[in-house]
Design brief:
- The protein is elongated, with a radius of gyration of 15 Å.
- It has three helices and no strands.
Length: 67
Amino acid sequence: MDSPFGILPLLIPVLIMDIALAAAAVVHILRHPYYRFGNKIMWLVIAVVLLLFGPIIYFVFGKGENE
């Protein structure tokens, strides 16, 4: 049986991309006051708590169009 460290080279790029996407979402949320749904606090919680899918959900559904 392989050790858990065998898949680590595959997970590192995914983790780096996930953190970068979350950071971009948080910066965007903090800089822009307009959202399609919800408010700033709600989107920050979604982007940070749901780390893998939260930023994607924000950029698809929450990002305001008047920016």
